UniProtKB/TrEMBL annotation:
Keywords: Membrane, Transmembrane, Transmembrane helix
Identification of the protein by name: EAL domain-containing protein
Domain EAL residues, every copy: 24-278
MF GO annotations: cyclic-guanylate-specific phosphodiesterase activity
């Protein structure tokens, strides 16, 4: 019996050792303290008009620099924040920080451009979300029409009625809405027709395979054609090569974002990037040439 018991205990120990939560201390405890410890920050990725590469917007992306694990991906800690009731406070902080930054941009190429902020479906579901957005705009001085809230397609499908009403309300107040990761969810054409929204962002998984893969090309073409005829502006995410950009422009996709143009950068780097770009624009633009 003693022997049996011992093996049993050993088994359990082995099992627990295999369990991630045993090897690494639970991340959520650290996440709770991360904000107050200054480990959470934002990076910003420019968006351009595909036709002339003019900067038209910037997307804010949240980062967590964990003291031991290093950078933890938002794909990992956003779901964790959602599961443990931390997403509303994290999300409001992100929104306020992004709006404050955007309101302060005064480099020529950034002045007045749109700021896109990713929003979790749980934030949308929280009572008073639209009022919270408005308060942050007042507090930071950001002009309402500069704000774009990015919402994933799949999150909207879950609670159509309520979600639609909220997006409607936000848009009546002047906020713009983008449907993120478009093409990866299950939305129908009637949903696309009725969705109170301004932008469709074609998911990176389709952009990755154009040009060259006929299926990806067909999907990109279809999203642009249907989206534009329903009044959306189309943004392609994850553009890494000139060929991708050229293809997307040739099918009349409006905007693009990706490593080809710029990686996400911290606020200070973004300002440097913008200053360099302002100089470049000034040097090459015909209006500024001496006659
Ligand atoms: P997303 O909103 O679709 O953001 C685009 C992701 O693609 C970002 O990853 C960005 O860094 C990455 N990316 C941009 N250009 C390229 C490229 O050319 N090639 C490749 N391979 N990747 C590119 P990131 O920052 O890791 O964010 C992942 C996701 O986490 C986001 O996807 C978004 O869904 C979520 N997320 C990020 N920040 C926030 C936030 O503040 N709140 C919420 N709720 N979700 C966020
Ligand atoms: Mg996004
Ligand atoms: Mg996206
Ligand atoms: Mg994506």
């Amino acid at each position: 019996l003693v022997l049996l018991n011992a093996t049993h205990r050993l088994d359990r120990a082995v099992l627990r050792r295999k369990d991630d939560a045993f090897v690494k201390p639970p991340l959520v405890a650290d996440l709770k303290k991360a904000r107050s410890r200054g480990e959470i920050f934002l990076v910003y990725q420019p968006q351009v008009n595909l036709a002339d590469e003019e900067v038209v917007g910037v997307e804010a992306l949240v980062r967590w620099s964990h003291p031991i694990r290093g950078l933890v991906s938002p794909n990992e800690f956003i779901p964790l924040a959602e599961a443990h009731g931390l997403i509303n406070s994290l999300g409001s902080w992100v929104l306020e920080e992004a709006c404050r930054q955007a309101a302060s941009w005064d480099e020529d190429v950034l002045k007045g451009v749109a700021i896109s902020v990713n929003v979790s479906p749980l934030q949308l579901a929280a009572p008073g979300f639209a009022d919270m957005v408005q308060q942050i705009e007042h507090k930071t001085g950001l002009a309402t029409e500069r704000l774009i809230l990015e919402i994933t397609e799949s999150s909207m499908v879950r609670d159509n009625e309520r979600g639609f009403r909220l997006l409607d309300e936000l848009r009546r107040r002047g906020v713009h809405i983008a449907i993120d990761d478009f093409g990866t969810g299950y939305s129908s054409l009637s949903y696309l027709r009725d969705l109170p929204s301004d932008y469709l962002k074609i998911d990176r998984s389709f952009v990755r395979d154009v040009p060259g893969k006929p299926e990806a090309e067909a999907i990109a073409r279809a999203v642009v054609a249907v989206g534009k005829s329903l009044g959306y502006q189309i943004v392609a995410e994850g553009i890494e090569t000139r060929q991708q950009a050229d293809f997307l422009q040739s099918i009349w996709c409006d905007k693009g974002q990706g490593y080809l143009y710029a990686h996400p950068m911290r606020a200070g780097e973004l300002a440097d990037w913008a200053r360099k770009r302002t100089r470049r624009v000034a040097e090459t633009s015909p209006q500024h040439m001496e006659v």
